[in-house]
Amino acid sequence: MKRRSFMQATIMASVAPGFAAPTAKKPNIILFYVDDLGWMDLGVQGSKFYETPNIDRLASEGVRYTQGYTPHPRCLPARYGVITGRFPARGGVPGGKGHLQPTDRTMGHALGAGGYKTCFAGKWHLTGPHGEKNLPQNMGFDVNIAAGAAGAPSTYFYPYRKKETSKLKPGWEIGLDKDYIAGMEDGKDGDYITETMTTKCLDFIEDNAENPFFLYLSHYGVHTPFEAPERLVKKYKAKLKTLKFDGPEYAAVDQATGRGDQLLHQNNPVYAAMIESVDESLGCVFQTLEKLGIADDTIIAFTADNGGLSNRGEKNGKISGRPLATSNLPLKTGKGWLYEGGIREAFIVKWPGVTKPGFVNESDVVVGSDLFPTFLEMAGLPKEPQNHVDGVSMVPSLKGRPFARGPVFWHSPTSRPYSTGDTDSSAVRIGNYKLLEWYNADHVELYDLSKDVGEQNDLSEKMPEKAAEMLAVLHDWRKEINAHTREQNWGNK
User: Fold this and answer.
1) Which of 119, 177, 197, 307 has the largest CB neighbor count within 10 A?
2) Residue 72 DSSP one-character state
3) How many CB atoms lie within 10 A of CB 27?
4) SS3 at position 176
């Protein structure tokens, strides 16, 4: 394996010149996927605290969508939606089947069959009860880097676990042990997983520079636990001292929809350092593509799995003591919720020679489930509508042409009122309107997102016919897919 200094690559990323290369028959494709990153957690999105020069650069060289969404407000279902091209509830995720099935076809399968060398790196989180059968190397990817059952490392520093032994629990396969980050044993004390995983991905790129490749770089960052290199933590602790915040730090959520409270300030220096470490990773990818002369032959898509962790729940009248990451303002709430703070995501695509550099698309609604058919069309491969049932190719939009799509649905039947404060709910967006239903509480809200992105003005009583029309569409969809629900009363009925 090639070894390199991550810091050396990071420094070079900001100064390396670009090299034009002949257009490849099939473009390379990189999906840069971040965990728990809020819509406002980037400089280009408007953050005054977090610094993301490389992601900002990607936006300046590609198209940035202001109406990009995740398929679900939590990690596992969102990843299912991206990799299968389906709205998660269609596959019984979460609840129902609850997981990716060994028989499901992924974007890795489709691109691999089309001649791509495929690699999945980082957070997979999709094994469910199926273990090794559901690991990336058995689900369409040639190479697996650090991917398994884990939703997060127990520590971001080597050996990436807090147990004294790397042995699996008796009778457990690698694909089932959530405390084990496989394939990362060759580290040393002080290694940080965001950096070491990036180094292995750069090796994959170099090894496949002559072939069309698909790299799904799925960072564990910026999920908890809050840990980052001291050089970056020190920087943001100092920066935080220079900032002034107006108003209270927390605000209670509406008891009709959930529990607990919401963080209103971006003031976590360790989380800020984690964001910059992920940004540095993208900078290293830029530098490597340029060094190899394949930057102009490589598509990069950037998004995240759910909104930032801004809410904490409540139990028996006591607010959870969990530390929070960020504020998603002006969006409402965050991870776990179907308000915009839980599902609206930064969404950037750079397709050299196709996308208009620096264009901000404020009209088209795109979803993570759209990436599967989009990548196939970009690669000149036949789409598979029988598989990516809910995904819509973004190619017309990326080319600046009219883009139309039907309703976008979300269904969250396994809420966590004591953790993130959310309660069971569904939502549908049709055009500019979005309707949310807390079906166990007989509560509905309606918003015009073109005028009210913060979802402050509920129109359900002012526009009862519109609300009823959209509610019927939502109910018909849930019935069509046999969506999983449960009877629960969180005290908001």
Assistant:
1) 307
2) S
3) 24
4) coil
Q: Is 473 helix (H, G, I), strand (E, B) or coil?
A: helix
pLDDT in tens, 345-393: 999 999 999 999 999 999 999 999 999 999 999 999 999 999 999 999 9
Q: How many CB atoms lie within 10 A of CB 11?
A: 15
CA dihedral angle for residue 491, residue 479, residue 102, residue 85, rounded to 10 degrees: -100
Predicted confidence (pLDDT) per residue in 80-90, tens digit: 999 999 999 99
Specify the pairing of strand 366-367 against strand 359-361. Answer: unpaired
pLDDT above 90 covers a percentage of the chain that reads 83
What sign does the CA torsion over 106, 112, 113, 116 have? Answer: positive
3 state SS of 49: coil
Residue 138 and residue 156: Cα distance in Å, rounded?
Answer: 26
**CA 153 – CA 162 distance, rounded (Å):** 9
Which class in CATH covers the domain with range 24-403? alpha beta
Helix intervals (H) in 141-260: 193-207, 230-240
Strand partners, 359: 63
* Average pLDDT of the residues in 172-192: 86
For residue 185, how many other CB atoms are within 10 A of its CB?
10
Could you say which DSSP state residue 68 is in?
A: E
Element (H, E) at 69: strand 63-69
Pair of tokens at residue 142:
């040639």
The alpha carbon torsion through 339, 342, 269, 30 (nearest 10 deg) reads -140
Of 275, 255, 290, which Cα lies nearest the Cα of 417?
Answer: 255
Is the CB of residue 256 less than 8 Å from the CB of residue 444? no
- Largest CA-CA distance found in the chain, in angstroms, rounded: 64
d(CA 123, CA 365): 26
Around 22, how many Cα atoms within 13 Å sit in the side-chain half-sphere? 3
Strands 425-430 and 433-438: antiparallel
What does pLDDT average to over the chain? 92
pTM: predicted TM-score of the whole model, two decimal places: 0.93
Tens of pLDDT, residue by residue over 308-324, are 999 999 988 899 888 99
Pairwise pLDDT comparison (321 vs 289), residue with the higher score = 289
**Residue ranges of E strands in 267-357:** 298-304, 311-312, 314-315, 318-319, 344-350
